[in-house]
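Hi W., the flavin-adenine dinucleotide complex you wanted:
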Amino acid sequence: MAYSLAMNVAGAEEARIMWFRRDLRVHDLPALTEAAAGARILPCFVFDERLLTGGRFVSPARVGFNLGCLDNLRDTLRDLGADLFVRHGEPETVLPALAEQAGATQVHWSADVSPWAGWRDRRVTAALEAAGIAAVPHPGSYIVDDPGSIVSGKGTPYAVYSPFFKAWKEVKRRPLEESPGRIDCPESIDPGRIPTLAELGLDAGTFETSFEPGESAAREAVRSYLNGGLSGYADTRNSPAGGSSRLSPYIRWGCLSPLELELKLGLREGSGPAVFRKELAWREFYASVLLNFPEVTTTEFQERYRGTLDWQVDGELLEAWKQGMTGYPLVDAGMRELLNDGWIHNRVRMVVASFLTKDLHIDWREGESWFMERLVDGDIASNNGGWQWVTSVGTDPAPYFQRMFNPMTQQERFDPDGEYVRRWVPELRTVPDEHLVRPWLMSGEEQEAASCRIGSDYPEPVIDHAEERRIAVERYRAAAGGKES
Ligand SMILES: Cc1cc2nc3c(=O)[nH]c(=O)nc-3n(C[C@H](O)[C@H](O)[C@H](O)COP(=O)(O)OP(=O)(O)OC[C@H]3O[C@@H](n4cnc5c(N)ncnc54)[C@H](O)[C@@H]3O)c2cc1C
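Structure:
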């Protein structure tokens, strides 16, 4: 991530473009502040087919959330005296043309970490420069300016989280940016309309997430979390029924500045804020991994697991997992939360990912892409990092048998009263507590009494966890050349 020197001295008539991407806010956004300093700006968003319908991870659910964020951003920009200019096409073509129309001499944006974004931004930069327009990337998507530049004393990037965290917390932070009080916009250019999902060629079916999109909702969610749940976060964060912040969609879409969030945490006492900050640092760690080891998007970080784990191909089992029909209540609750809300609690992400890769022995890439299709917070760096971590093939390694999650004991521990499972698996709502972890052990009479017949109302377990765990240990041991880790 390279940033150009700030160029904030503008002539009175100068115009600039602020190109929004996944930084859909006006608070603490260096690209916006810099672009707007003394110049008229044209804030724009470009719908790029290559990402929307042609990319690796097409997601009507996430694009729907994106559209909602754009609606909110446009309202905010209008309140500030400007607008959001919406265009369609490849930014390397659209932006020079828009710059010419507006008489703009600079295009500002917030740098991104994915290999594809890097490729696109290089093309945009070349096209702008060829037209005599300056391309000006900025920090703002992460707490530190450039997570990828954090290296060990030997000058190598970190592949383990703890030393990364130690180094990361010492990195000097930039000052917070003021949000502009007013934005002057070039007149007589058509702002264009924010399209519907259908106009973009996407169909989310009946999907509707409970997360309200946009910066206004994000700031409200932060306010309420900082004054409420945060103080108990260290104890409650593993509870899927509630207990974590649920801020990830907002952080993913840049509706929140992670740096502003960190500074607010710093003003609060107790273990909650400190533990929360460590979680934010995981996101920065995975950004650094993606910047330094872009090959992880297609292959295992650990060389010995590349092509050596014998993955099972089983469409029926994969579908049972996707639809939340495995017969294991915690797994099914998580997968249905994903289907219906576009989000899953972190503890349950780990459980369902372990179930796919170590109980069903299905390739982690299948899970990675299903998550990317359904998650409103779907993020290539964190998602790939999370999948490789659970599958024991990635960075921050640990012996593979330490990351084999038992879906039953996890449910007993983290959803002891069944609130989460009952919320997402209605067939199990009237199953008594003592049977909620292993409903298949209910007698015929008990099934009748609970209105939950196993095999018809709710599936039998698709596999036997203890047996599949044994097989997974063998598979991993063989792939690791007989070693225990
Ligand atoms: C298999 C798998 C896939 C994942 N895919 C994604 C993804 O696509 N997008 C995504 O944002 N997170 C992903 N995560 C990380 C984590 O599950 C979510 O960030 C978290 O559940 C979001 O809920 P929250 O906002 O309540 O988190 P909180 O516990 O309140 O944490 C606060 C913030 O810290 C960050 N964070 C917390 N844990 C992690 C982590 N392990 N890795 C990276 N960032 C973290 C998130 O931005 C989160 O919003 C994945 C984890 C796993 C195991």
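Residues 15-139 form a domain with the Rossmann fold fold (CATH 3.40.50.620).

W.
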